[in-house]
Write a structure and sequence with these properties.
This protein is mainly α. It contains 18 helices and two strands. The protein has a two-stranded antiparallel ribbon. Strand 1 and strand 2 form a beta hairpin. Helix 10 crosses helix 18. It is globular and about 55 Å long. The N and C termini lie far apart (about 45 Å).
């Protein structure tokens, strides 16, 4: 029996028009701010955003031509501006520049092409890709199709069944499952690809996924999606210890209620907060994540627990689990949460805990790992 591909399906009906927020998500009608207040904030935000965009355009140059030079000259300015948030109109380009994916794309012309068959042998980063084919058979096809409708279902781009957004998402995930058969496709990867597709083309999104999972700039993420989720297990071990050390009373309460990070934090790492967090907050986290590495996931997680500490410490098991999966709106304000996260120092301890985890699990550290680079 011939395996069906997404192109074999007819697009479903176009969803009825609804009010959308500035990111393209269906607006929640409750808790709308007073009209006058909303307008004044919009004007103020617009003016501030224009000033920021002008600074950023000057910093990156046309098409990113000045980026590397500016980063070398003023790394602290770049870091500070990224932490304040990349302007939304430039976010896609800057993400490609800071992740190293733009370089990968330029080094691998033709790998991601819209043809039925691409016969090529391309060497990139010591990987040999034989006949990388968008429409080549993948064992993950049916899993990808099944999960597509669950990815950002309230976003206008992905709402139409088998429509342009869902087809693009399928194409990127399918291409990656062919590119890296060891990883293939795992549920959760769709939120990474979906987020990227809202800011860039399919080809750009594909190469940014390659940059992340293969480690173009920071430590490779592919261990989050390999069989057994080995990197997830490591991160949860590290996070558990950080909670016990930095929030000892809460850590003790978690132990009494038999709460472990695997019950609430796995998706934080697997989707880098893109699964259930407010989109405006997820974007700000991704800005920093692509520039500074995975430590921001630990920092944000600890900052959330710290912010809600006094409430969490009073809750019994069932209410505690609910609270850890549904943080209050005031805790999700990026202008409050992120400065708190940046103030939490974790790099040195993460490196130590990584070595400790590897020792406990019988893995020999690689030469030079004692310095513990985990970004």
């Amino acid at each position: 029996m011939e395996r069906k591909r997404i192109d074999d399906y007819e697009p479903g009906p176009v969803p009825s028009p609804k009010a959308l927020d500035r990111f393209g998500f269906i607006k929640q009608e409750f808790n709308a701010p007073p009209e006058g207040l909303s307008k004044s904030r919009t004007v103020h935000d617009h003016e501030r955003e224009e000033r920021r965009v002008r600074k950023w355009r000057k910093m990156i140059g046309i098409g990113g031509s000045d980026w590397k030079h500016y980063v070398r000259r003023k790394p602290n300015v770049v870091k500070r501006r990224i932490r304040k948030g990349i302007p939304d109109c430039l976010r896609g380009l800057v993400w490609q520049l800071i992740s190293g994916s733009r370089d990968l794309l330029l080094m691998n012309p033709g790998v991601y092409e819209w043809r039925q068959i691409l016969d090529a042998t391309i060497i990139a980063n010591e990987l040999v890709l034989e006949q990388l084919v968008i429409y080549e058979t993948s064992a993950s096809e049916l899993d990808i199709i099944r999960d597509i409708s669950r990815t950002f279902p309230s976003h206008v781009f992905f709402q139409q069944r088998h429509g342009p957004g869902q087809r693009s998402l399928y194409n990127v995930l399918k291409a990656y499952s062919v590119y890296d058969r060891d990883v293939g496709y795992v549920q959760g990867m769709g939120f990474l690809a979906g987020l990227l597709l809202l800011y860039m083309s399919e080809e750009d999104a594909f190469w940014l996924m390659v940059a992340l999972l293969k480690g173009a700039v920071h430590a490779p993420m592919e261990g989050l999606y390999l069989v057994g989720l080995p990197l997830v297990q490591q991160y949860l071990f590290q996070f558990d210890n950080l909670v016990k050390e930095q929030l000892p009373k809460l850590g003790e309460h978690f132990a009494q209620e038999v709460i472990t990070p695997s019950m609430y934090a796995s998706q934080w790492f697997i989707t880098v907060f893109s699964y259930s967090f407010p989109f405006h907050l997820a974007l700000r986290i991704w800005d920093v994540f692509l520039h500074e590495g995975v430590k921001i996931v630990f920092q944000v997680g600890l900052a959330l627990l710290k912010y809600c500490h006094d409430d969490l410490i009073k809750l019994p098991f069932e209410k505690l689990i609910h609270a850890l999966r549904n943080f209050p709106e005031n805790a999700m304000n990026p202008d409050t949460l992120l400065p708190m996260a940046y103030s939490i120092k974790v790099s040195k301890r993460l490196a130590e805990l990584k070595l400790e985890y590897e020792k406990q699990n019988g893995k020999q550290p690689q030469p030079g790992e004692s310095s513990g680079k985990q970004k």
